[in-house]
Amino acid sequence: LTAKYPDDTRLLIEAGLKEYFPKKRNPELIYEAMSHSLFSGGKRFRGILVIEAAKLLGATPEEVMPTACAVEYIHTYSLIHDDLPAIDDDDLRRGKPTCHILFGEAMAILAGDALFTEAFSLIAGAQKTGDRGRVVDVVWELSSAAGVTGMVGGQVVDIISEGRGIDAATLEFIHENKTGALIKASVRAGSILAGASESELAGLSSYAGYLGLAFQITDDVLDVVGDTEVLGKTAGSDAKLGKATYPSVYGLKEAKAMAESVVGRAKEALNGLSGDTAVLRNLADFVYERQF
Ligand code: IPE
Ligand code: IPE
Ligand code: MG
Ligand code: MG
Ligand code: MG
Predict the structure, then answer these.
(1) Is pLDDT of 55 > 80?
(2) Of 61, 67, 143, 246, which residue is most buried, by most CB within 10 angstroms?
């Protein structure tokens, strides 16, 4: 493996999440369900993207931390709901029992709702860097990436495609929306807060679009070849559900080759940017090489 993961940034996010998480209050049960899922590991890949994009453009991690934490709230909400019996029906997440297994379906639904809402509360209340116009732009980016024009839309097509043969364009739509949209919006949010120029935003968006697609292709590959223990989630879940995945449509070997080529395109998209893009390049390599 050649990719270095920015663990220093990951640890900053862990600290930020602890700082911003609402102090436990009435009703205690929902805060327990939320923190079970939020503080059970996770690569913090999307929060890292917010921070590393901002750093490239001259901002500090502290300046964008509320937004970095907010994207991790949104991501954790999406995992809690994705694991529900009505969606993917998974029992294991981040090496621990899923939220609904420990707290019941009603609390898991509500914990997801709460994290999603809290994300926007955090941005509106604590994101001070960037004028209010930039903060509103970030709210727009993240809400449209999470909603029906992004992640929710992708999840809908993921569900209605179970057990059917689908075409290449539909498969790409699923992946770019259910996973790619939030990854792209994370990069864009960090860039916008740091005052990206139009050409910087275009280059970084292109990078992030490829990165997001590759991230989900690798997720599909790992569901086939990965190890439950290392993944922290049950391998083989996609085949069991008849999910439309890159390995199911193209075969394992071709899916891996596609992930590698899309990662290559992500890195190429950085060529026009000035500044040190090493961390973003490493993150792209990580997406292809990762084992979890
Ligand atoms: C898993 O995301 C779900 C997808 C959208 C592919 P991650 O692989 O980033 O999961 P964590 O946050 O590290 O647990
Ligand atoms: C993840 O897709 C999509 C979202 C959570 C939005 P998967 O269903 O493949 O993710 P995992 O494999 O359960 O993490
Ligand atoms: Mg799913
Ligand atoms: Mg799933
Ligand atoms: Mg998966």
Answers:
(1) yes
(2) 67
> pTM of this prediction?
0.98
Closest-lying ligand 2 atom to the alpha carbon of residue 82: 5
In this structure, are residues 224 and 84 in contact, taking their beta carbons and an 8 Å threshold?
no
Q: Which residue has the tokens 């968006």?
A: 205
Confidence check: pLDDT of 220 > 70: yes
**Predicted local distance difference test score (pLDDT) of residue 160:** 98
Provide the 8-state DSSP code for 90.
Answer: -
pLDDT of residue 24: 74
Question: In DSSP terms, which residues pair with 97 in a beta bridge?
Answer: 92
H or E stretch at 96: strand 96-97
What lies within 8 Å, CB to CB, of 283 at 6+ separation is 3, 5, 6, 45, 48, 49, 52, 211
Altogether, the residues listed in the chain come to a count of 292
Please choose from 10, 43, 80, 83 the residue to mutate so as to test ligand 1's pocket, defined by most ligand atoms within 8 A of CB: 43
When the pLDDT of each residue in the chain is averaged and rounded to a whole number, the result is 97
